[in-house]
Amino acid sequence: MVELFTRILLLALLWWVNCSANTDRSALLALKAHISSDPHNLLLKNWTTQTSFCNWVGITCDPLNSRVTGLNLSNVQLVGTIPPEIGNLSSLISLDMNENSFYGPIPASIFNLSSIQVITLRGNAALSSELPTDMCKHSLHNLRLLRISFTKLYGQIPSSLGQCSSLEKLSLYNNSLVGEVPKEIGNLTHLTQLFLGFNTLTGDIPKQISHLHMLQSLWMESNKFTGPLPPDVGNLTSLRELILYNNNLTGNIPNQIGHLRNLETLSMASTGLNGSIPKEIGNLTALRSLYLDNNVLNGVIPHEIGQLNNLLILSIDSNKLIGTLPPTFSNMSSLKYISLSHNTLNGTLLREIGNMKALQELYLINNTLTGVIPEEIGGLDKLVSLYMNGNKLIGPLPRVILNMKSLVALSLNKNALTGIIPGELFTANIKSVDLSDNHFQGSEQPLLVRMLTTFTTIDMAENKFSGKIPDSIGNLNSLKCLNLSHNNLTGQIPSSIGNVKALESLDLTEEDMDLPHEEKEKLHALKRSSSWKAMDGKW
Length: 539
What we know:
With 539 residues, the chain is mostly beta strands. Among the domains are: 256-345, Leucine-rich repeat, LRR (right-handed beta-alpha superhelix) (Alpha-Beta Horseshoe); 355-414, no CATH class; 420-539, Alpha-Beta Horseshoe (Leucine-rich repeat, LRR (right-handed beta-alpha superhelix)). The chain has a 21-stranded mixed beta sheet. A 9-stranded mixed beta sheet has the order 1-4-6-8-10-12-14-16-18.
């Protein structure tokens, strides 16, 4: 009797395994039937009934019962729809169909898979669906990764998502989601990554997010969040990335931000935040990138900012900052990029700026900086771009700039610089220079004699240059834009300018000069651009 029972049980088990296998095969063949384009013939040639589906490309099976546990068809350029039969793969653990061209709805049956741990459908731009309102209520309790980003997911984030208690990574990035982030998101205490950026989410940032103590990445940028940044965000002590730019927040940066000592990237540009920069920001010693630009921040730059020894990028332009650069500023010797433009900073440039040897880009446009450009700036050997236009800088252009061999772009226009521009300035790699609207003077422009043929832009308008343009201007083979307007130049424009075939814009407004007709005809690019600017109807 026992032997008979054992045989019956074994037969029943074999029947169940066979039925389950047939169900899996049918589900996969249904997917194949819904593919309208398979440019690599992966499914056409490989997914055939002549071979076991466990040997099909992209399929992983459990070796004990031959049930499908993995379906990986990522980045193989498939076009088609996802059939509801995929939900019949009841042993499926991982579903990866990233970077294809699936379109239409996401079958609700996928969200009923009780064993699933990974669902990733990223980059299927025409995949259009809502998340089920009851998702995670009856299934998905093992789900660790849900990535449905760069699709056309619409509707609201269901509050039931908070019942996916095993979730570690959640990305609904770059979709068309609306409404508020449900407070139940705070129940996902295993979450390490939360990407909700580039949607149309509204309302406050829920304070329950502060319950996510394991969170390392929080991206909520380019939405329509309002209200203050919750002070409880300081509880996210594991956080490495906090990305909130391009929202409609109000209020100050909370002092509790200083608790995020593991933070490496803080991006809160264009959020509407006001008030002063808290001194506690100096506690973020792991910080590598700080973006606070285009807000309404006021007050001075705190001295404590000099404690950010690992900072590579500092961008606080387009605010209402006042005062001088703190003396600790130059302690940030790892900085590669500084932008403090469009504020009301005053005082002189720190001589210690020469200690910032890693600096590659410096933007201090439209402030009220005074004094001379310090000689120490010549020590910035890696500096590529130097923009300090729109200030109140005085004195001569320091010759130490000649030592800045990496410099490509120099803009010092709209200051009060004086003297003669050293001709050697342009013997390096510089390609664009704007020294207009200063008080430079001299009998002629000795710098033009030494300019290299790599120049593309020269703007020296509104100075006090006099004399003639030298014949050597014809050597500037790459020159596209030349502006010498509003000076005191005289004489005839040298015929060699006809050799500058790339010239698109020439402005000699208010200059007593002329150009022979035959040379005009040589400047083909200039004729096409219609950028002939001179007075008295000569051109």
